[in-house]
Specification:
Blueprint lengths: L1 E3 L3 H8 L8 E5 L3 E3 L4 H5 L9 E3 H4 L6 E5 L2 E5 L4 E4 L4 E3 L3 E3 L4 E2 L7 H4 L1 E2 L3 H20 L10 E5 L3 H19 L11 E5 L11 H14 L2 E3 L4 E4 L3 E4 L4 E3 L2 E4 L3 E2 L18 E2 L5 E2 L2 E6 L4 E2 L1 E3 L2 E4 L4 H19 L14 E6 L2 E5 L6 E2 H15 L3 H15 L18
Parallel strand pairs: 1-2, 1-9, 2-5, 9-22, 11-18, 12-13, 12-18, 13-14, 20-23
Antiparallel strand pairs: 3-4, 6-7, 7-8, 10-19, 15-16, 16-17, 21-22, 24-25, 26-27, 27-28
The structure holds flavin-adenine dinucleotide.
C-alpha cells in the first residue's frame, strides 16, 4: 500500500500500519518531515531549519515493512490503482492514503503570489529569514531607502500564524538593535498586522483573540482589524479602502487552500478550499480503498457533526491514525467505523512569556502559563530527540532573555558580482 505525504497525517497513518501485515511505501517530495507549527521561529531566526525537520528515512529506519520513496506524486488513477510519480514511474497500490496537506492560499489577491512571502514550507521559512535579515542590514547601511528611515514589515492575516509571526518579528527587531547593534530606530521600524475580520485568532474564543490583540499592541505591533488587502506590489500593499501602505516585506499568513495540490485532482466531490469530501470513515465515495487525511480532506468531526474539522495538527494526527485502523479492519474483513474527532484545544504563542492555550475544558491559559503549556505540547509532538533537546535549550535561553538564535543570511553571495 501507498501513503502520499510525510506530514503529521501521513506519519501517523504509517506509524499505525507498521504492525500490520502490509508493506507501506511512503512517498514525499521532501526527504524530511516538517514541523510546521515552528516554521515562524525559523523565519524569525529563533531556530535552525534542521531543528524543525527530521529525515523520513530515519523516522522509519527500524521498520522493515516501511519503505520511503523520495519523489513528487503527480497523479492518482483510482481505476488502475496507480500513483504516478514525476520521474515517470508508477506505484501500484491496493490501499492508498492521500496525506498531501494544503498549500498557501493567496485567494486571488492581485500581486500576492509574486510579491508576498508565504510561510508554508521549510524553504519558505528560510527565504523569509534571508529576506527579513537582509532588509535589516540594508536599513543599517541605507536608512534613506526606507520611508521614515526604517523598515516596516507587514503581516497579512490575523490567525495563529500571523499572530505568532508578528510577535516573533518584533522580538527579532528588538534583538537586532539591542544585541547586534543594527543602526535602526526601533521607534520608527514597525510590524503591522492586517486582518480583514473584526478580531484576531478567529476559531479561538473571543477572549483569546482580545488577549492576543492587547498583548501584541502593548509590545508595539500595529494591529489593524477590518483591513482587507486588495493588492500586493514590490512596494507594499494597497488596502481595501484604496490607501497604500509601504512595506519592506509583506509576509503572507492569509490562509491555506487544497486547490492546486494533488488531492484537488482526485475524481470526487470537493468542498471549501478544495478539501476532499469524505465518507464518515474518511474514505472516498465509491473507493473504500482510498483514504484522504489531514489538511487535504474535509475531515468530518463525527457522526453527529458532519462539518469539517479545522486544518490543524491534531486533526491530521487523529485522522491519519483512523485511516490506518480502518485499513487494518478491512484487511481483517471487518466493517469500517466513522471518525470521531477528540478536540484537545487550540494554542498560539504571541511572543516570549506570552501565549494563549484554549483547552477543551476549563479556563483559557494565558501569559507565562499559556506559554509553558504551548512549549510542553510542542516538545511532545516535535519529531526527534535531538530536536526536542535543542528546542528546549533554545527556549530556556530566550526565556532568560539571553538573545541567541541563528541570525544568518544563508544565500549564495559568492556568485554575485
Ligand atoms: C506556518 C504554519 C503554522 C502552523 N501552526 C500550527 C499550530 O501551531 N498548531 C496546529 O495544530 N497546527 C498548525 N498548523 C497547521 C498544521 O501544521 C497542519 O494542519 C498539519 O501540518 C497538516 O498535516 P498534513 O499531514 O495534513 O499536511 P502537511 O503537514 O502539510 O504534510 C503534507 C506532506 O505531503 C507532502 N506532499 C505534498 N504534496 C505532495 C506530492 N504531490 N508528492 C509527494 N509529497 C507531497 C509535503 O511535502 C508534506 O511533507 C500550522 C501550519 C502552518 C503552515
Amino acid at each position: 500500500m501507498v501513503v502520499i505525504g510525510a506530514g503529521f497525517a501521513g506519519l501517523s497513518a504509517t506509524r499505525h500500519l507498521r504492525d500490520q501485515p502490509v508493506t507501506v511505501t511512503i512517498v514525499d517530495h521532501h526527504n524530511f518531515h516538517t514541523f510546521q507549527p515552528l516554521l515562524y521561529q525559523v523565519a524569525t531566526a529563533g531556530l535552525d531549519p534542521a531543528d524543525v525537520a527530521y529525515p523520513v528515512r530515519t523516522i522509519f529506519g527500524r521498520e522493515p515493512n516501511v519503505v520511503f520513496r523520495h519523489g513528487r506524486a503527480l497523479s492518482v488513477d483510482v481505476d488502475t490503482r496507480q500513483v504516478g510519480l514525476a520521474d515517470g514511474t508508477a506505484l501500484d497500490y491496493d490501499r492508498l492514503v492521500v496525506a498531501t496537506g494544503a498549500t498557501t492560499g493567496f485567494f486571488s489577491v492581485p500581486g500576492a503570489p509574486q510579491h508576498a512571502l508565504p510561510l508554508y514550507t521549510l524553504a519558505d521559512a528560510r527565504r523569509l529569514r534571508n529576506n527579513v535579515l537582509g532588509c535589516l542590514e540594508t536599513a543599517d547601511a541605507h536608512p534613506e531607502d526606507f520611508d521614515g528611515g526604517a523598515p516596516t514589515f507587514v503581516v497579512v492575516g490575523g490567525g495563529a500564524s500571523g499572530v505568532e509571526m508578528s510577535g516573533a518579528l518584533l522580538e527579532l527587531l528588538d534583538v537586532s538593535v539591542r544585541r547586534d547593534r543594527l543602526r535602526i530606530d526601533p521607534e520608527r521600524s514597525k510590524v503591522v498586522l492586517l486582518e480583514a475580520g473584526d478580531r484576531l485568532l478567529p476559531g479561538f474564543k473571543h477572549e483569546a483573540g482580545r488577549y492576543a490583540e492587547e498583548t501584541l499592541r502593548s509590545r508595539g505591533v500595529v494591529v489593524r482589524l477590518r483591513t482587507p488587502v486588495a493588492e500586493v506590489t514590490g512596494e507594499g500593499v494597497r488596502l481595501g479602502d484604496g490607501t497604500w501602505l509601504r512595506a519592506a516585506a509583506v509576509i503572507w499568513a492569509g490562509g491555506v487552500t487544497v486547490d492546486g495540490t494533488l488531492a484537488a485532482s482526485l475524481p470526487t466531490a470537493h468542498g471549501r478550499g478544495g478539501r476532499v469530501t469524505l465518507e464518515p470513515d474518511l474514505s472516498l465515495a465509491d473507493h473504500p480503498e482510498v483514504f484522504v487525511v489531514g489538511d487535504a480532506g474535509a475531515v468530518p468531526w463525527g457522526p453527529a457533526r458532519p462539518e469539517a474539522c479545522p486544518q490543524v495538527a491534531q486533526v491530521a494526527i487523529q485522522s491519519g491514525r483512523h485511516a490506518a485502523l480502518q485499513i487494518a479492519r478491512q484487511l481483517q474483513g471487518r466493517p469500517t467505523t466513522p471518525f470521531n474527532y477528540h478536540d484537545k484545544g487550540l494554542m498560539a504563542t504571541i511572543g516570549r512569556h506570552a501565549a494563549v492555550a484554549q483547552l477543551r475544558r476549563g479556563p483559557i491559559l494565558r501569559g507565562t502559563l499559556g506559554w509553558l503549556a504551548w512549549l510542553g505540547l510542542h516538545l511532545v509532538y516535535l519529531v526527534g530527540f535531538r530536536n526536542r533537546v535543542v528546542v528546549l535549550v533554545n527556549w530556556w535561553w530566550r526565556y532568560l532573555d539571553w538573545p541567541s538564535g541563528p541570525r544568518l543570511i544563508v544565500a549564495d553571495v559568492d556568485a554575485e558580482p
